[in-house]
Amino acid sequence: VALFDGFYVPAPKDRLTRSTMPLSAALLETFHAIVSDNGFITDKGEMAPFLEESRNRFESSADLVLKPKTTQEVAEILSICNDNDIPVVPQGGNTGHCGGAVSDGGVLLNLSRLNKIRHVDPANASLTVEAGCILQDVQKAADEHNLLFPLSLAAEGSCQIGGNLATNAGGIHVLKYGNMRDLTLGLEVCLPDGRIWDGLRLLRKDNTGYDLKHLFIGSEGTLGVITAASLKLFPKPKQKSSAFIACERINDLLDIFDKARACFGEMIYAFEIMPSFAMELVTKHIPDQKSPFAQTYPWYGLIELVSTTEQHPLQEELESFLSLLYDDSFIHNAILAQDMKQANAFLNLRESISAAQKKEGGSIKHDVSVPLSAIPTFMEETTQACQNLVAGCRVCAFGHMGDGNIHFNISRPEQMESYPFLKYWEEFNELVHDMVHKFNGSISAEHGIGKLKMDEMERYLPAVEIDMMRNLKRSLDPNNIMNPNKIIRL
Ligand SMILES: Cc1cc2nc3c(=O)[nH]c(=O)nc-3n(C[C@H](O)[C@H](O)[C@H](O)COP(=O)(O)OP(=O)(O)OC[C@H]3O[C@@H](n4cnc5c(N)ncnc54)[C@H](O)[C@@H]3O)c2cc1C
C-alpha cells in the first residue's frame, strides 16, 4: 500500500457540499445554448423516466438532464462541469443492474441522441458507431453487410453501446467471442476536462504504449464519457443447432460442457444452465412459455452450436452427441430444435428467468463467477449455507455456465412476504460473496460495481489493487466530477 501512497494528485473536494448547490441561471443558460431545446430537460416530470432505477434500490435526482447530439457538445458540457465542479453521470439505456447511472445531483448526461452508425468497413470486418446506438441497431447494421456483431443480451433492445462498453457487458456469446473488451478495436472518449481523445483505431495489432481503451471499458463512466467505438465484426453463422437437455445433477452439466468443448470447440455458441425452480417460475409467470418436457427434472441445459458453412452436418453431429450422452446416462432427456422458431423458444425460456423471478416477489441477486471446475461444489455449499440462513429460501442459480458466470439469485420462502426477506439482503450478500471468494471467484462477473457493490469490492480486492484504481481515477479526473461515488470512493 505504501508504494502507492501520495502517488498522484491531492484528494478532491467534498462532493456533498457541491451536489446540494443549485445550478445558477447563467450556467443553465450556457448548457441550453450547447444542446438547444431538444437536449435540455429541467422539468421534474420530464426528468422522471431518466431517474428510474430498475431494481428500486436507489433514489436518483438531478438538476437537469442533458442530451447532447455530438461529441463536441459532450466535450463542451464536461469542460463547463469541470470548471464549475458539477458532477456528471453518463447514462445509456439505463438497463444496468448496479445503480451506475443513478445521479445524486448535477448533470445527468443521457447519450441517446448521439446515435449515428458512422462507418461500416466490411473488408476490415469492423464498424464505428456512436455511444448512444442501441445494441440491436448495431447488430442490424452488421447484418446488413452480412456480418455479425456478436454481443447479445436480453436488454439488447434498449441498452446502448456506450453502456455496454462502460460495463464491459457479457451476455450469452462470451464463450465464443469474448465480452465487450474483446470486441473493441478503438474508442473515442471525452475526458473530464473537455479534451477529446480520438482513439478510434481499426487495428487488430497495435502496441504503441499503454492500451488506454481498456481503462475506459468497464469504468462505468467514472473516468470519462465514451462517445464512439470501433468494434469487431465476424462472419455470420450460416446455420445454428440448439438442444435443450435435462439432467439429474449440476456435475453432469459440467461434464457435458467439457465433452462438448472437446467435440465442438469454437462451434459452441452458448452453454446455459437453469435449475428446476427457474423453469417453474418462467412457466408460471411468463405468458406462452412452457417447458419442452412433459415431466420436470432437477437441472436443464441449453446448448447452441453454429457453423459458418452450410455444408457442415451440424444437426447430425449434435444429435449423435446427445445420443452418446443419453447412452452414458449423463442426461435424462433432450430435445433437438427442429427449426429456428423452436431454437428461439429455447433461448426465450432461459432469457425470461429474471423477469419471472421479479414476479415471484422479493429476491436477492448475485452476479458472480468462479472457475468452471469449482461450480458444482460452490453451488452445493452456497445453497446449503443459504438454507441455513433462511430456511425455505429458494435458490435460483442459473446462467452462462460456459464462462463460469452464475446468477446466484435467492427468492423469498413461499410463506414469507418480500419485505421481511429483503431485510436479509446484506447477510445473503456477505454469505454468497464469501463463498465466491473462497473459490477464487469474482463478485461481479458482468454487471459491474456501480453504487451497489462498492463496499463489497473494497472488502475482497487486495488493498494495493484498490489503491491503484483510486490513483488512476485521481489522475484522469482530479476534480472527481465523473460519476462520483461509483465503483470507488475517493
Ligand atoms: C433483462 C436484462 C438482461 C441483462 N442481461 C445482461 C447480460 O446478459 N450481460 C450483461 O453484461 N449485462 C446484462 N444486463 C445489464 C445491462 O443491460 C448491461 O449492463 C448494459 O451493458 C448496460 O447498458 P446501458 O446502456 O443500459 O447502460 P446504463 O445502465 O445506462 O449505464 C451503465 C453504466 O455505464 C455508464 N455509461 C453509460 N453510457 C456511458 C458512456 N457513453 N460513457 C461512459 N459511461 C457510460 C453509466 O454511467 C453506468 O455507470 C441485463 C439487463 C437487463 C435489464
Q: Main β-sheet: number of strands, strand sense, barrel status?
A: 5 strands, antiparallel
Q: Given the helix and strand composition, which structural class is it?
A: alpha+beta
Q: How much helix, percentage-wise, in residues?
A: 25-40%
Average pLDDT number: 93
Shape: globular
Spans of at least 5 consecutive residues whose pLDDT stays below 50 are 1-17
Strand order in the sheet with the most strands: 5-6-10-8-9
Oligomer: single chain
Strand share of the residues? 15-25%
- Rg from Cα: 23 Å
Q: Give the names of the bound compounds.
A: flavin-adenine dinucleotide
Number of strands: 19
Total count of helical runs of at least 4 residues? 18
Terminal-residue CA separation: 15 Å
Structural overview:
The chain has helices spanning 15-19, 25-35, 44-47, 71-84, 135-143, 161-166, 174-177, 213-216, 250-264, 276-285, 314-327, 340-351, 353-359, 375-389, 418-422, 425-438, 454-460, 463-476; strands at residues 40-41, 64-66, 88-91, 107-110, 117-121, 126-130, 147-148, 184-190, 196-199, 225-232, 234-235, 239-247, 268-275, 299-307, 333-336, 363-364, 367-369, 394-400, 405-411. It is built from 18 helices and 19 strands. The longest helix is centred in the middle third of the chain and has 15 residues, at 250-264. Helix 2 runs antiparallel to helix 4, helix 10 packs across helix 13 (353-359) and helix 14 runs antiparallel to helix 16 (425-438). The protein is α+β, with helices and mostly antiparallel strands and 490 residues long. Helices cover 35% and strands 19% of the residues. The two termini are 15 Å apart. Strands 5-6-10-8-9 form a five-stranded antiparallel β-sheet. It binds flavin-adenine dinucleotide. Flavin-adenine dinucleotide binds next to strand 3, helix 6 and strand 10.
